[in-house]
Records
---
Amino acid sequence: MGKAARNRVLVINSGSSSIKYQLLDPESSVVAASGIVERIGEDDSAIEHRAESATTERRVAIADHTAGLRLVFETFAATGHDLEKEGVRAVGHRVVHGGEVFYRPTLIDDDVVAAIADLAALAPLHNPANLAGIESARALLPGVPQVAVFDTAFFHGLPAAAKTYAIDAKVAAAHGIRKYGFHGTSHEYVSGRVSELLGRDAFEVNQIVFHLGNGASASAIRGGRPVDTSMGLTPLEGLVMGTRSGDLDPGIVAHLARSAHLDIDQIDTLLNRDSGLKGLSGVNDFRELRRRIDSGDEAARLAYEVYIHRLRRYLGAYLIELGGVDAITFTAGVGENSPQVRADALAGLARFGIEVDPAANTAGDRTARRISPPDAPVAVLVVPTNEELAIARSARRVVERLD
Ligand code: ADP
């Protein structure tokens, strides 16, 4: 057990009021334990911890991220994994915004912490929460290397034409305004799996990846490198999401300020938390949306149609940007689990070589698989994402360089 345990990486995804975590072996991909601490700072905080087949649940007031992580370590110890005694190879932290500074997995020291804090202006909802997880883990596991893996990193090298917003260039330069892109860990992992599944070198493959979860994004990837992505300066741009609007006329912001007398924070909240599927239909969960559509709810139907319309708009744009594709892939909660979204997103495109085989599309398989007819020119795939594994592997690569 000793050596195997020491090879494991603890992956931490620390949000504003939650900590998701996983203890796994980056080589074998075997997950020893995982869980989530929710509602940090509220009276009814809770931890749900899964180790082997057993789930431990506790409701207890958790004041802050350090208390949350301490409870995680106690729960690990109580269920057979004493992290402080057994040791872990590294802690890998998901960090949402790396700005222009970070585009590789990075060993965390005081300077890196300060730089991530400086980037909070670009990601006020995310980076401070990510930092709280980093600070807590550094305090609780002082001897263990901590590695930051950035959601923006994969998109760092986007072509200038794709990443530049057409606003006053001096204003943009002064405020770091460009397209950064997010969900990069997922797009990188999934697109790499696609090349493997097709049995081709990454540099030969043109592909589009749709990451459709609560947040949603699309990317166009040529030869292993992204050439465009739907999220922008922030994760608000692009596809219709659970609670985010995605693309809209920027004039709407000024109009809301003047006509509805909303201040900028109210508009930010409206667009990030009360828009998207939730704003249109009242629900952000896709399964509930489907139930409402099936019971004849017109608002839910319209929300779904707007969602699909936006997906197809990006599909069309990226098909042309890439000059044709070898593969189109769906991943994350909705992408992996909704045959209807996949079928509707790609309906009527046989003339472009894009077809979905209905039987393969609805097969209840949870593994990576092809859902287009075997002879169709474009491979349509479902590939489960695994951001934790990708973060663990990145963290391991960084610590290997220290040996
Ligand atoms: P996050 O962005 O929070 O990581 P996920 O990737 O877990 O999100 O995706 C969450 C979304 O996936 C929710 O809208 C949920 O309803 C949807 N989803 C999960 N399972 C299914 C399913 N079987 N069918 C349709 N949608 C599903």
---
Amino acid sequence: MKILLTGGAGYIGSHVAAALVSSGHDIVCFDNLSNSEAGVMDRLEAITGTPIPLVKGDIRDRDALDKVFGDHAVEAVIHFAGLKAVGESVAQPMRYYDNNVRGTLTLLEAMSDCDVKTLVFSSSATVYGSPSYLPIDEEHPTSATNPYGRTKLMIEEMLADVAASDPEWRIATLRYFNPVGAHDSGLIGENPNGVPNNLMPYISRVAAGRLNELSVFGGDYPTPDGTGVRDYIHVLDLADGHVAALDAIAKTERPLSTWNLGTGQGYSVLDMVKAFERVNGVRVPYRIAPRRDGDIASCFASPERAERELGWKASRGLDAMCASSWSFEHMLAKRNTD
Ligand code: NAD
Ligand code: WQD
């Protein structure tokens, strides 16, 4: 299949690009490079042995979308493009609604007009809000506690309405839990600008001496060791989940499907720190700090529906997540000194 990846130069998009090429798909990436760089395409070529076209453009630009659909015989879209920083979304809500919601609406209009009606959308476990039970299955009530989360919920609602309006649509909403880790090659991974918000890149930078110590946000949660518990999923497992979802919606009669992509296993912040230290033979100094606003104690998925309907199950454990994050950190350091 010929697949357009919006946000294909980003962290998750680049790993999915590699997985799709390995599965024999033909792809084109579309990205405004607001949170990525064009150099990732060379590294993808080194990984896959195939040059992958990158079109620099914005999903809010209808003309640019029409051109990419006109130039390439696109049959399906995987839609990663979006802004994703929770704190930033609180400070700049209009930017988030514009980029994420208006951007998605523009993409849907362009798709509809050129009769491309197969879509995989990057949603998030953030749409479950504060969990009322664990593990979280897809029937869990949804809510949002910040503008970023509200953009994901609004888009999910938009997709439900679109799917209900026309039975030709085949839409998969994938709710990611906590993606971490990097490609085995060490060539692509997560490299946030500035000080990382997320745990794993923060741990890597502390281990590398680029940051002094990790602040563990809260040591008094009702969890086994008092620190927050999350469902960390290796980005390569997540990438395989996209390939499986795309295959599934090509066969299904259902216009809309929703799947959790998680492992079902929760780990605490201190579990992550200790695993990172053990696997990589490094030290990660930390101190227990106050809770972070808006954080919840525990969040982990029931991945059963994805296993049953997609035949997909995460297979990589914590050690692989920590080892690949550290290899990528090394590669970044090497790239910066070359
Ligand atoms: P990322 O920032 O690395 O990738 C997003 C890409 O989209 C970037 O390359 C960016 O330049 C591009 N982009 C942003 N706005 C655009 C626009 N208007 N037009 C064109 N390109 C645009 O983020 P990621 O971690 O790879 O996340 C991908 C998707 O997955 C996002 O939608 C995010 O909300 C979702 N998600 C991420 C996580 C996570 O923890 N990483 C968890 C759940 C869901
Ligand atoms: C994980 C755990 C923190 C940093 C966020 C978004 C969510 C989704 C994934 C996109 C928590 C603790 C973290 C640090 C710490 N993204 N922590 N010190 O908050 O589960 O989810 O990313 O959709 O929407 O909210 O992930 O990696 O920020 O935090 O102690 O410096 O690590 O308190 O328990 P989170 P995270």
